[in-house]
């Protein structure tokens, strides 16, 4: 299928409006994969039209900033799927696995709505209800749309969201608009069926199973058509792509270009999860996932600016809570029976207003820290130039510090602050920091070091491997043993920014680091690669964690 004209976010219309398709030759700021897209998950209100900002500002997946403060939940009402992906094995009762397709309980629409209302009452920052499996939301249209219909009456302030492989998408665009579902994720791993047939063994299409190249071609055409139809109707779309080394790694740059052309709002490139224990085709055939550096290289190649989502946690199909935490065990069907549920809209609004104040404080702190960093850099550059002009010797390190970009790991339990002890971390957030930015670029899951009040030293090497590409780790507190091990590995443990906003803390540390380089107190070295932990959390109650 041929590409349509380029469409910018500014041209996305409210639901129901027709799209003015621009001429292919210009008038649009989106430049596909070749340049900076018009917006991205790290952008703010100044980067997009107000009506788009209103849609994304409280959506933890569509706004990186929002994901520190707002939660989502999934209801597992969609068990069937109409295609097979080589990275998928849908499992039930895997409470200690966190990856797409895994759930503990399938729900009817009525059970789902009860659960949503209960969660929304308990977690006022839960702003988005998503249907993301464990199969495909649109391969189960009756259950998916019945859930949305019931919810519209009972929880009218929730944003509705679905995730789909796209095969059935063109058939349900009207229904999606009818229920005001204004966030749709399509998983698109290829735009070339020759690549696609390595990922999809079959699809179920028009009452028959189709295999090989033909299957991938049909899927590709349906995905592109569905994406174009949603853009034309003003529905925000996010494209999820699974990075499969040797299969579609470089090809994802082409995917990025094609989906941008068709008006996709965000592109989320995620690492393949393929442990043999998961029982997927890729897991069983030894197809590996990417390293942290491989993932970042493809993401960087796709972005000229901030058009990528990098904070995806590859959630379970019944996940509840902030991205990176999972509170689904608190809301099982038997526990719901015992709960006294009141949907208090005012309480939710008031809580969210408090979050907004905190969020603005975080933004202000970041801007102030950036201004400080920029002033320090300017002063350092002026001093270097003066020294150069005077033919005095300036250290090469002082020159190098001006252009530095490093990764910093952060221990946080939410709210956008450095507020978690090293030993309690199950996930580090990773920020890319320079004099002009502190940008969230990923997360690293780890096994919790502190078990039952004591450090488990056998876990330390795997924790260090997970953040081995970082120059520092910002924590609220850290013990002597992990401090020594991190220092020996070249990762600086930093605990003097407790409670501060992450970006400000990262920039303040960066300025200090540059000053130490310039003075010769430390020597800057490049870091190595890091290991991406495959999709499971440690179950503190004795569950088995999958191998790192
Ligand atoms: Fe769920 Fe997906 Fe909606 Fe978010 S998840 S349906 S857009 S509410 Fe988010 Fe989870 Fe990543 Fe999905 S972190 S797997 S991108
Ligand atoms: Fe699994 Fe989703 Fe692929 Fe279906 S579309 S096989 S549920 S990953």
What does this structure look like?
The structure is a single chain. The chain is an alpha/beta fold and 548 residues long. Helix content is 34%, strand content 16%. The chain has an 8-stranded mixed sheet with strand order 12-11-10-7-6-5-1-13, with helices on one face. A 5-stranded mixed sheet has the order 16-15-14-19-20. Helix 2 crosses helix 3 (141-154) and helix 11 runs parallel beside helix 15. The two termini are 41 Å apart. The protein binds FE(8)-S(7) cluster and iron/sulfur cluster (SF4). Residues 61, 72, 74, 128, 130, 132, 161, 163, 183, 185, 238, 268, 312-315, 323 line the site of FE(8)-S(7) cluster.
Please render the helix and strand layout as text.
Elements: H1 50-56, E1 71-74, E2 83-84, E3 91-92, E4 102-103, H2 109-122, E5 126-131, H3 141-154, E6 159-164, H4 173-178, E7 183-187, H5 193-196, E8 202-205, E9 208-211, H6 212-232, E10 236-243, H7 251-261, E11 266-271, H8 281-284, H9 292-302, E12 308-309, E13 320-321, H10 333-338, H11 345-389, H12 396-402, E14 406-410, E15 427-434, E16 437-445, E17 450-451, E18 454-455, H13 460-466, E19 472-474, H14 480-489, E20 492-494, H15 502-519
Parallel strand pairs: 1-5, 3-4, 5-6, 6-7, 7-10, 10-11, 11-12, 14-19, 19-20
Antiparallel strand pairs: 1-13, 2-8, 8-9, 14-15, 15-16, 17-18
The structure holds FE(8)-S(7) cluster and iron/sulfur cluster.
Residues 81, 83-85, 88, 90, 101, 133, 135-136, 165 line the site of iron/sulfur cluster.
């Amino acid at each position: 299928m041929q590409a349509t004209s380029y469409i910018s976010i500014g041209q996305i219309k409210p639901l129901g409006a027709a799209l003015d398709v621009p001429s292919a030759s210009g008038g649009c700021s989106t430049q596909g994969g070749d340049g900076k897209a018009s917006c991205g998950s790290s952008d703010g209100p100044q980067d997009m039209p107000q009506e788009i900002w209103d849609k994304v500002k409280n959506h933890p997946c569509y706004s990186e900033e929002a994901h520190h403060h707002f939660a989502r939940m999934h209801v597992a009402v969609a068990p069937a799927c109409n295609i097979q992906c080589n990275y998928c094995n849908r499992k039930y009762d895997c409470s200690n696995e966190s990856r797409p397709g895994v759930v503990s309980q399938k729900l009817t629409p009525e059970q789902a709505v009860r659960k949503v209302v209960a969660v929304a009452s308990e977690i006022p920052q839960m702003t988005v209800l998503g249907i993301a499996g464990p199969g495909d939301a649109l391969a189960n249209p009756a259950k998916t749309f019945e859930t949305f219909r019931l919810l519209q009456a009972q929880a009218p302030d929730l944003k509705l969201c679905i995730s789909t492989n796209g095969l059935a998408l063109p058939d349900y665009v009207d229904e999606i608009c009818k229920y005001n579902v204004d966030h749709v994720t399509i998983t698109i791993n290829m735009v070339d069926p020759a690549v696609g047939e390595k990922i999809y063994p079959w699809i179920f299409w028009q009452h028959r199973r189709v295999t090989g190249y033909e299957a991938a071609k049909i899927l590709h055409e349906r995905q592109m058509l569905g994406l174009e139809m949603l853009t034309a109707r003003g529905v925000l779309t996010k494209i999820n792509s699974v990075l499969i080394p040797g299969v579609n790694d470089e090809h994802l740059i082409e995917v990025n270009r094609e989906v941008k052309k068709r008006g996709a709002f965000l592109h989320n490139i995620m690492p393949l999860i393929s442990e043999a224990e998961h029982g997927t085709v890729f897991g069983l055939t030894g197809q590996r996932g990417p390293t942290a550096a491989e993932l970042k290289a493809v993401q960087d190649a796709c972005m000229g600016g901030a058009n990528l989502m990098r904070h995806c946690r590859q959630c379970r199909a019944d996940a509840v809570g902030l991205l990176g935490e999972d509170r689904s065990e608190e809301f099982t069907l038997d526990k719901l029976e015992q709960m006294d549920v009141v949907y208090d809209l005012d309480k939710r609004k008031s809580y969210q207003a408090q979050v907004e104040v905190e969020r603005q404080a975080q933004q202000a702190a970041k801007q102030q820290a950036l201004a400080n960093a920029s002033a320090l850099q300017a002063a350092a550059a002026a001093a270097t130039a003066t020294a150069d002009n005077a033919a005095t010797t300036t250290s090469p390190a002082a020159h190098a510090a001006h252009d530095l970009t490093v990764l910093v790991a952060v221990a946080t339990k939410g709210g956008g602050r450095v507020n978690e002890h090293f030993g309690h971390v199950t996930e580090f957030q990773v920020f890319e920091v320079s004099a002009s930015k502190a940008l969230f670029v990923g997360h690293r899951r780890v096994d919790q070091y502190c078990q039952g009040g004591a450090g488990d030293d056998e876990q330390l090497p795997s924790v260090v491997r997970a953040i081995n590409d970082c120059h520092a780790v910002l924590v609220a507190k850290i013990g002597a043993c992990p401090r020594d091990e991190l220092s020996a590995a070249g990762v600086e443990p930093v605990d003097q920014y407790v409670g501060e906003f992450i970006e400000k803390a990262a920039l303040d540390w960066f300025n200090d680091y540059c000053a130490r380089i310039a003075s010769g107190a430390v020597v800057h070295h490049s870091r190595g690669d890091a290991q991406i932990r495959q999709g499971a959390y440690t179950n503190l109650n004795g569950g088995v964690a999958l191998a790192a």
